[in-house]
Design goal:
Layout: H1 2-27, H2 29-51, H3 59-85, H4 88-95, H5 98-109, H6 116-132, H7 136-139, H8 144-168, H9 171-174, H10 177-196, H11 208-232, H12 237-244, H13 249-258, H14 265-285
Helix pairs in contact: 1-2, 1-3, 1-11, 1-12, 1-13, 2-3, 2-10, 2-11, 3-4, 3-8, 3-10, 4-8, 4-13, 5-8, 5-12, 6-14, 8-10
């Protein structure tokens, strides 16, 4: 079940990347981050109020999620900035390396362990991610802004990997909902504080298409974290993280279909390895 929930997170997060790329190119990446954080926090607050999920939260938990929120704010700002200025079919697979960051942190900090078969599946997935990102060599041959996209994507990979672990690490004690809400709440506070001074919180484009894109992004991204946390109730965090890594396959396909991007044959082989790694992981822990 943990692998299935991880795959659910992959599907929703992958779809969110596509929506974020569209909205970010219309209203700017920072406004996208703010918009979907506000919507997601509001919806999660309704769930929390209706379920009383915060009853077991302590002051120490609040302090922990303030830190997690700061990490999430920085990670999402880097990620959506990358999507706004670079090719989604190349940069999204790079950010999908967050899963390996989460996996390594789970092994180091939570003392989790992978079996031999599961570890082999992870290696196959990592190899696929490297191949899917082989277009990096092209980035440095074009405009400087694309190189900036690469740097933002790499920073997002590390930060989001830490954020995902932070959201899930207290799920056993607080349940699946409270950690998602608290992490999103404090991320929203940091995002709003960083934008309000310069007036960046105002939306220059309020067309229904953009507004619905922000709402869809909030729903998809939040669903991913809920699915991930539910997965940790059935399997180790490391397993769920590895299962969620193939989310980049969806943005690659979306980039080809809708943005007319052209991954190389090597990148397509990489996508195949990512999928194969997921199948092997499901067999290994199923």
């Amino acid at each position: 079940m943990g692998v299935l929930f991880g795959l659910g997170a992959a599907v929703t997060w992958g779809s969110a990347d596509y929506v974020a790329a569209i909205a970010g190119r219309r209203i700017g990446s920072h406004r996208v981050v703010l918009g979907f954080h506000v919507v997601a926090t509001f919806l999660l607050a309704l769930l929390v109020l209706g379920t009383g999920s915060l009853e077991g939260v302590s002051a120490a938990d609040v302090g922990f999620f303030v830190l997690v929120g700061a990490i999430g704010w920085t990670g999402y700002a880097c990620f959506y900035r990358a999507l706004a200025i670079g090719p989604i079919s190349v940069l999204s697979p790079i950010v999908s390396g967050y899963a390996m960051v989460t996996l390594l942190l789970a092994i180091i900090l939570l003392d989790e362990r992978l079996g031999v078969a599961a570890a082999c599946a992870v290696v196959v997935s990592v190899f696929g991610i490297v191949l899917a990102s082989s277009g990096l060599r092209h980035i440095f041959r074009v405009e400087r802004v694309d190189a900036h996209g690469l740097l933002f994507a790499l920073a997002a990979m590390v930060l989001i990997g830490a954020f995902v672990l932070g959201v899930s690490v207290k799920a056993d004690d607080l349940g699946w909902l409270a950690p998602v809400f608290l992490a999103r709440l404090f991320s929203t506070v940091f995002v709003f504080a960083s934008l309000i001074k310069g007036g960046g919180w105002r939306f220059p484009d309020r067309s229904p298409r953009v507004l619905w894109a922000v709402v869809a992004l909030a729903l998809l991204d939040t669903a991913g974290y809920i699915s991930f946390n539910l997965g940790t109730e059935h399997s180790d965090t490391a397993i769920v993280a590895a299962a969620s890594a193939p989310y980049a396959v969806i943005p690659v396909i979306a980039g080809v279909m809708f943005f007319h991007e052209r991954p190389t044959p090597t990148e397509w082989v990489g996508v195949g390895f990512v999928i194969a790694g997921l199948v092997l992981l499901g067999i290994a822990v199923g």
